[in-house]
Amino acid sequence: MKVHQKIKLLLEEKDWTLKMLQRAIEELFEGNAVTYLTLLRTIHGQTKLRESTLFQIATALGKTPEEIRKETDEEEKFIRFGYNKKAHLEIESTNLDFLTARLVLLPQAKTETEQDPAEKGVFVKWLYGLTGETTCVVMTENGSERHTIRKNESFSFRSTYPHYFENNAGKKAVCILVQNPKYI
């Protein structure tokens, strides 16, 4: 099922018309409400559903965006792990023996220091830059090492060493992060 089809079903369940949905959104979001035309195109699957539009529709229906996506072809495949307001991991929920995630760092973001347990095995993290510049700081017995990963560059290290990630640039940085074996 597509998301727009799920929205139609939710409207039918509430016995709402599109105009009723629009009024509910206008009451909640006033001057920032999505237009009726946007809703019409969304319900008919004629436009790409923006996150802000889905948020307004979900709020008006008394749901969350995740609840609307549930059991659709756009159901979230990621679990979000937030370090803080500026840094998070989007962890892919799979049955793989290794962890796959997207590390997202807003400008001036820094994660907490983390370390995988050496007593549980040998852990390796591999990063591949998608956008921006991510700096990985690893504290080894030889001191602190700083490695900057840019778009299309990669870096790997033993994650049993204390480490953290930061973005000192003025734009968002995103990396693919793979950890083997999985430990979270």
List keywords for this structure.
six-stranded antiparallel sheet, 434 Repressor (Amino-terminal Domain), 9 strands, 2 domains, 5 helices, three-stranded antiparallel sheet, alpha+beta, 184 residues, Jelly Rolls
Q: Can you tell me about this structure?
A:
This protein is an alpha+beta fold and 184 residues long. The chain folds into 2 domains: 3-69, Orthogonal Bundle (434 Repressor (Amino-terminal Domain)); 78-180, Jelly Rolls, CATH 2.60.120.10. The chain contains 5 helices and 9 strands, in the order αααααβββββββββ. The chain has helices at 3-14, 18-29, 36-43, 51-61, 65-69; strands at residues 78-84, 87-92, 99-105, 124-131, 134-140, 143-149, 154-158, 163-166, 173-180. The strands form 2 sheets. A 6-stranded antiparallel beta sheet has the order 1-2-3-9-4-7, with no helix packed on it. Strands 6-5-8 form a 3-stranded antiparallel beta sheet, with no helix packed on it. It is elongated, with a radius of gyration of 21 Å.
